[in-house]
Structures are given as C-alpha cells and as structure tokens.
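Section handout 9: paired folding examples.
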Amino acid sequence: MEERRISCHGISLREYRLNTVVVGTGAAGYNAADQLFSCGQQDIAVVTEGINRGTSRNTGSDKQTYYKLTLSGEEADSIREMAQTLFDGQCVDGDIALCEAALSAQGFLKLVGLGVPFPRNRWGEYIGYKTDHDPRRRATSVGPYTSKIMTECLQRSVEEKQIPVFDGLLAIAILSDGQSCCGLLCLDCRNAEQEDMRYVAFRCQNVIWATGGPAGIYGDSVYPAGHFGATGTAFAAGAAGKNLTEWQYGLASVNPRWNVSGTYMQVLPRFISAKEDGTDEREFLYDFFSNPAELLTMVFLKGYQWPFDVRKVAGGSSIVDILVYLEQKKGRKVFLDFRANPGGGEIDFGQLGQEALDYLQQAGACFGTPFERLLHMNQPAVEFYRARGVDLSREPLEIALCAQHNNGGLAIDSWWQTNVKGLFAAGEAAASHGVYRPGGSALNAGQVGSARAAQYIACHGHGTGDEEGYRVLLEKELGRAREFGNAVLDSSHPLEIRTIWNETAADMSRFGASIRSRSGMEQLLERVKERREGLGSNGRAASYGQLQQAFRLRDMLLCQQVYLEAMLDYLDKGGGSRGSALYTDPEGLRPYAELPDEFIYKLDNGSMGDKVQEVCWNGSKCEFSWREVRAVPEDDDFFENVWREFRENGNVY
C-alpha cells in the first residue's frame, strides 16, 4: 500500500493506493480481509466507520443460530439437499444457494479453528438442531452472542496478519462509471473540521462492500443503534438491487435493541400497553382473544415463530405482531411484563395447546410467574437485560414491531460480484436470500460470500485500476461531496439533520415496513423525494461533527426511495402479501372481523417465487427488470473433469 498526498479541487487530501479495500468490520468484512491475505492477495486494507459498531458485533437473540451442513448424527444430508432447501425459499438464485451449501462446512470449521466454541459431543460431532424453514438439524449456536464471538475471533486473525484497518472513515462514494469501480472516497469523521484532512481517497482495483443491511431507513428497528448501512451509496455507483421488497420483521425490545424471541415468549409474559405518560395501563391482547388458553398458546408460539409471517396471521401467532402494531399506531407504548401472569392470576397449564404444554412440562416450568419461569429456563436471558440496566423482576420491557433483516440487497453473481466490475458485496449488503430463509443462514452467507469474493479477487483482481479514469471520477465525487458538505454546514438552513432523519425513518416504519398500502407508500415516496432533493438546501448540520450524520442521511434517503419504488413495482406486477410483508388489498379477505381495513389482503399464490426483481438507479430514476431465477447448477462430480478444470486455474474462478 502506498500513501501520499494529492491536490484535487484546490485542496490537499490523503490518498492510498492498493489492490483491494474492504468496507466494514463485521463478520463478513473481517473474513473477506482474512481470506484475501490467506489467498496471497495482501495489498489490502479495511475501512470502517467504527470498529466496535455494526450488527455482527452488537446483535443477537435468545439463541443466535449459525446454519450449516449437518455434521452429526445418523440423519442423511448433502450439499445438494441443503442447496435445495435454500433455493426453496423463493426468489433465490440456485448457483448462490449451491455455493452457500458447498462452503458452509468450510466456513464453519474455519471459525472453529479460530476459536468460536461451537458445541460438539465427546466424539467430535458438531451437534445441531432444527431452525425455521429447516428440514434437517443443521442449526448450531454458541448462545445469544454467536455473531459477536465470530467477529471477535476474525478480528484477532486480521490483527495477527497486521492487515491495515482505517477506523473512523465513512465511505461516502464508490468511484465508479457504472461499469467498473476504481476507488473509494471517505469522510474522516474524526478530522472533519480540517478541510485538508476531511476527505480521504483510495485508489484500488476492487472494493468489497460489507456494510450490512440498510438499517437506518427504519425508525422501529432491532438493528444495533450504531449500525446504519450504506446500500444507497452502492446504488449511486450503479450497483443493482435485488429482492429489495423482502425483509424480516419481528418483536424486539426498544432499549436495548434485542429480539424478544425464544424463551422470552415461551415463559408467557403479559402484553401491556400504556399512554405516553405511562397511564391507562392494560392487557390489550384480551381485547382480541376471548379465550385465555388461545391467547397463551399464541404467545408461546411467538417464541418458535418469531418473525412476522403473513401466512400466520389468520389462525396463527403473527396476529400478536399485528395487535402490537395497532397499539403502536394509536400512539401507545407496548411492554412485556414478566412480573405477573397474563390476567393477573394463576395459569391453568393444562389448557394450553399440546406443543406449549409439552415444552413447558419437559422444561419443568409449569409454575410461578413469567420471570420465575424465565430464570429457571434461561438465566442468561435475564442477565442480558440486567447488565443493560433493565431488571425484568421489577419493571416491564418496552417492545415494538421492528425491522430485523433485509433478505434482499445488492445483486451478485456466484462470486459475489455486483454488476459493477470490481465491486463485490458480502454479508447482509448482498442479496443472497429470497422470501424465506432458514434461521441462521445469514451468518453462513456472510462467511461464504466474503470467501468467494476473496478467492476471485486473488485470482483475477490484480492491479490498482486505470489512472486517468480514477482521476476523473475522484474529481467528480470530491466536488459533489464538498458542495454537499459545505451546503449542510450553512447555519441558515431550517431543518436539523436529526429532525429530518427521525421523521423519515418513522414514516418508513409506518408505511414501508411489515404493513404496506399502495396509497401510503406512494405518499411517502413523494415526501422522500422532496427530502432527498432538498437536503442540500434545507438540511442543517449543527457542527462539523454532524457531517457524518448528513452524509449518512443522504445515503439513507436514496435508499428509501429505491426500496419504496421496488415495493410499488412489485405491486404493479401483481404481487401479493408474502414473507414478512402484508400488502393492503381492498379486493382481498379480512382474516378477523375485528381488524381494520388496513388488514384486508391477498396471500401471494407463489407464482412469482421463481422470479427475481432487479433495479438500477440511473442517477435520476429507478429502472426495473424481472427475470427467472438461476437454477441450481447441474451436478458435475466426475473427478477427472473437475480436477482438470481446477488445475487449469482460471476455469474454476
């Protein structure tokens, strides 16, 4: 890596010349850097807004899952069968599914070698369990902090290799002509006051975009508070989006942000709501459920069926998500209360559904209060909140229906390269999933995708790019950045950046999250366009320190616009309610008479499950295309043929 200073737009700025820049220090980003080094490509660096931020390091669940090929027991499994399971999630490309299955054991065992303590029995089998959308026992876990421990182990490996990590740099532009990329422009968040230190340029041949999902577009979010995503910046560089309509939403605590899945629901807490000032507390689920046994059974099932699933609204546990959403819509706060049983009295466990009764009996938990049951069944779940200032034995836990994971993202090929040559996406930034996915498959996808990108770059992605093209693009993007940065620093502008952010994020949660109506999304889209186009003339950064937030907001608004247009295009093509999204349809059915018109919908009939929506932002508007999914590649296991192709190197990559 070469460091120097160059003059551009009349200012001096730092420039680094190297082969590959990895953006992001989550599990996917660190693995990309680690794999590049191991593959012999060592002219690399990692860029991050904050080493200790991001979803991988700061999120988890009751039992955070890693999904991989079965490595224990008598049950038969195969790479092709696992690939088919992933492919069956709808709108999934078969070549990507096959890669994720084929490399799952390799990625998993690498993590084991780095020190991630995945459980195994005395004979060395890595035991597993079934997760959602999983026909085998492929899931495993090291507890609530699986991704955190993965990230820490990968970070140690990167540090041992002395790979440079630039902390405090926000990537604000990918230097791209829409066909290929040749560098990166960053804001130095720690030196924003000094103009000759404010911007940093990287000239490189490859960029691996491991920035996570676009968490910042939603107000109600279980993503960690320090994670925002940067998908809008990739759109601006010409990268195509894929399956942007497909998200996962679920119930989560607000502070701290954490999924209230698994045991948190299986111990049968009270659901209460109150006015903003804390008055008028009531158990609102009883307004809907006249049968207490049905209420308790649905709450229990939320533990197993945590994501909101539109197929489970009528007669299923996702009605609980909707009832929480309706309380939020009224302006009321919603809480889980573990201090007393639902209804305030003793629970007649014999009235529960058979699955709930069997589970609680086997756990020896048919007694006491929800808190006592939680302490008995999962003490770490209690300690998690206690360590963050919430004592579940003394106070209720505020929750909301939150965005949790984007199954879509940037369109990639089987080497995780986008349509922009040299720009790769890994982790949640990459669209490797479809409508449904097995729990824990995202962690596997991040490891596989970053490894595939590294392997390809090590074979083909040599050099530092075209000098003349790089200089032209740097001039353009630095000019735009300086113009925007100087504009939002104008103290006469009427709206603070944080105000715009809060309003547009809240709007997105209201109209473009789990419950979507055409009219609501169309109205919001117009507001988002106005906010985005007027940001430079209306938005005000109160200090140089807020420049970071202003550039993030610029990314977020473009991202919101593209995602909303994708949702509307999906409706234009006749799409129905599926996955974690309920689309209001006046010609549909109302699952319960008590629900308002907003919840009249038609379930998707599966006819679009073999199609993929892709979108490109051309600088002024979105351009959509639809195609058939790529099939799972045919099996070619004749050893001599594969061996010959492998020896000839380029035929494999």
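Moving on to protein 2 of 2.
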Amino acid sequence: MRRHDSAALPLPAEGRAGAARPRRNEWHAFGLLLPYLWEFKGRVLVALVFLAGAKLANVGVPLVLKEVVDGLDRDAAVVAVPFALLVAYGALRFSNTLFAELRDVVFVRVTQRAIRRIALTVFRHLHSLSLRFHLERQTGGVSRDIERGTRGISSLLSYMLFSIIPVLLEFGLVAAVLLAKFDWRFPAITFGAVAVYIAFTIWVTEWRIAIRRQANELDSKANTRAIDSLLNYETVKYFGNEDYEARRYDENLRRYEDAAVRSESSLGLLNIGQSLIIAAAVTALMVLAAQGVVARTLTLGDLVLVNALLIQLYIPLNFLGMVYREIKQSLIDMDRMFRLLEENREVEDAPGALDLPPGPAAVRFEHVDFAYERSRQILFDVSFEVPAGSKVAVVGHSGSGKSTLARLLYRFYDVNAGRITVNGTDLRDLRQASLRAAVAIVPQDTVLFNDTLRYNIHYGRPEATAGEVVEAAKSAHIHEFIAGLPDGYETGVGERGLKLSGGEKQRVAIARALLKDPRILIFDEATSALDSKAEQAIQAELDRIARGRTTLVIAHRLSTVMDADQILVLDHGRIVERGTHWALLASGGAYAQMWALQQREKEAAGEGSAPQPA
C-alpha cells in the first residue's frame, strides 16, 4: 500500500485567495465549446444548408426585381405584365423567411443541449471541489458567472450562425453580382466601404468592451453584496445596519451606473460613425448608377438592383458593432464560466480507488498533521482509534480542532502528514462516494434546503419510503412537532431552515442522518442547540442509535459523553488526555477541570449535578 506522508504543509492553489488570473484570448472559450456541439454535427450541417438557402433567396430577390422593373419599362418591347417574374419574386421572399425559420427550428436543439450539458458539467464540478473552495467563494458572483456564461453560449451560437456567417455569405454573393453586372467602380466602393466600416467598428468596439468588462465586474460585486446581505438578514437586523448595508450596496451600484453610462455613451459614437460610412458609400454608388441610367449604359432596373443589394448588405452591417461586441462579451462570459472548470480538485479519487467493503468499520488516525493555511497548523501528531461498533468522544475548548477531525474523516480535506484509515485502508485509496455513503454526520450548524420538512429528512436517503421517513422523524423526536403543523411534513422550512428554531433544525438533521443508516456516525455538537430537558429526551435515543455503529462524538457538554468507550481531550490541536469518563475524572487533569466548571454552571442554573465517581 502506498504512503502519503509529507512533512510539508502546502497550501493548495485554490486556497490562495485573490490570486490573479492570467488574461488569455477570449476565443479560447469557443474552442472549449466545440466538443459540446459535435454531438449534433448533423443538425449543424442541416442548419447551414437552410442558412445558405435563405441567403440565396435573399440575393435572388433584387435580381428578379430588376427584371420586373425592366419588363415594365414603357420603352421595352414587352407588352404583357411579367406575371412569372412577379410570382418568382413572391416565392423568393417567402423562401427567405421559410429557410430562416427552418434553420432556427433545426438549430435550437443544438443550442439548448449545449447549454444544458455545460451547465450540468459546471454544476457537477463545483460539487467536486474541496470544502476550501466553497468556504472562500462568493456565491452571488459564482451564480452570476454561471448565469452569464450559459446565456453567452446562446448568444454566441445565435450571432455566429444567424449574423456573422449570413453576412459573410451574403457579402460574397453581392460581390459576385456586382462584379458580373457592373464596372469595377461599384465593387471597389462597396468593398472599400465595408473594409473601413469593419475596421472602425472593431476599433471602437474593442474600446467599449473594456468598459463593458468593468461594468460586468461591478455588476457581479453588487450582486454578491446583495445576496450576502440578504443571507445574513437576521444579523443585519440584530445590529440595525439596514442603512449601512444599503449604502454599501448603493456604492457598488453607483460604480456600475458610471460604467454603464460610459458604455451607452460610447455606443452613440459607434452608431454615428457607422451611419456616416454607409451613407457616404450608398450616395457614391447611387450617383454612379444614376449616371449610368442617364447615359443609357444601365437600365432603371439596374438602379433598383444596386439600391436593393446595398440595402440588403448594409442593413446587417448596421448591427455588426453590436454583434461583434456581443460575441466578444459572450466569449468573455463563457471564459469566466469555463474557468470554474479549471479550478483544481484539491481532493480527488486516486486511480484504481477502491470501494469500502460492507460490514463494520473501524477508524484510525495515525500521526495526523493538518493545516487549513500554511501559517496556522490545526492538528499536531493526532493518533487514536475508533474500533468497529465503539463510541469515541472528542472534547476540548472551542478552536481546539475537534470539528476538523470530522471534516478529515469525511475527506473534505486531505491530511498534510500521517494518514486516516477505515478498516486499514487509507481514505485516499477509497472512492469518495463509497466512503461518504458509509458515514453520516449531525453537524453543529445545521443548514436545511429551502424546501419541505419531508424533503429535508428524505435527503438522507432519497430512495427511502414515506414510512421510513416518519420512523426516522420519530427516532429524532420531531414527528409529533411535524404532525402538529397545519401542513405536516409538507411544511416549508425557509431559506437555510430559518423558519425553524435551532433545536428543531438539529432534530431534522438527526432524523436525516438516521435515515441514511450509516456504518459510521459523527455527532458534531449534535445537541448543542437543545435545552437541557430536550437534550436529555433525545440523548437516550442517540445512544440507542449509536449502539453497534462506529461513532465519533464531538462534544462540548461533557454529560453527553459519559458513556463513551474512550474520551479524547484535544487542546490546541494535540491530544493531551485520553481515557474513560471516570478515569479522566480520577486523574484530575484538564478533563476534570472542565467537568468541575460545567457542574458549577449547572448548579448555578438550578439544573442539578451529574453523578460523581465513588
């Protein structure tokens, strides 16, 4: 079996808050998108065929219109109305719309499936990242990045297929017509104007993108500020800081407002310049066409043809600045989302990782060192064993590292030195899913989903029956409370369970853990939110539940761990005492001092005292 010991305490890359991200070309995101489109390559090709059909019909309309105008010219020899040409004109108009709509219908599945698959991939990846990432993240900013990224996929594909490619195709067709039917001056003016137009648009848009990027950063900050404030609604109220929070939020909004105003003001400059270039080119071409009609080198139909072709070419060019800006912004937004996929998984399954075999599970910590940050080590050479089916308790003052043991056992983090084993196998050699399926925790700070009580209990084992959910609630002594509610198990608990009291939330957490039916149980201050009476009522049930299971109890109230097979006293990350309750009291060390202090607190509160050793 390989070993993972290391004397160093490295800080993972994702733990370096504020690390600058290198800038890279936005088009890098388009390359990351291509594999998601490959699944529907057939649909993409069909959509491109319909697109080409729509553009051919669109360019065919002016050509037919020219023939209609020339056919109706009084100087022409034709004496009948050209009905066939008029029918062809109508058919081409309809074909343009028909092919465009068919293109949309065919391609919509490609867009939506790509968005779905990428969003799911990002969602799964975020859940696969370590607890460190989620403790350091800003939920509002991350959610906004995902939202803008998925929207950016839709915008990019829409503009690429429905704007850029059609304009290029139409430009080529118009160029072919001008070269075939008119002298060199017509395509020269057209191409020259288009070149100037594109250069001007890209130059101004690149300048505007920097402003837009700043506006988006400020928008994310404002959104993060708002969500963080609302999630801490009660804290804001406790300290009467509504105006303070509003000022902080408004400061972010003010900066966003300034950036947004600069962005919109620069749009006016772009539109004026584009209109000037197009107007100058159209005027020059119409003058040339009019001179040709007067000189009888061109017909009236040719004048109409030139005008119609230029309108069809320049109308989409009018949107080029917006399209280019939106494509660049979509690529930036997608890149921000794809960067989430590049966040390193601090904790990963090793190649060939094993499943935890069924049966009783024994846990062992062997000379474990751990630090969340390089400058602050939490655990020092911690070694202990929890034999299969036994109960081991860890006690100590706040900040001594008790809850860190639970996080390491769940493998939210990997140890920096030493190892943790289950039945002799290093946790790093086990599949995380297999390990976590065998472990259930009742945390000190219970956070519930914004759903019903039934959903939150059922979450412990989604395949459990309704009867098993009720039995778990009864074991956690919360069934009667739920049954007395107007909506019973369908009662909503609110954001993070804020509609429930601390004790009620903790009972739901206990029921959820029981429903999971784990081999390893972790009680992390499981009764900390309960009063003494409620704690006594549920403690016997917890003892019954823990019987026969490997149980790690992290506790502050020493009265809840008196029956533990072994009690560990943790102080500043080191085990300073270990033994049974009575043995530790007899030794007169740190545990005996904590016990005496808690007994005095109980007596002062009039709750009586626990039994003393003989």
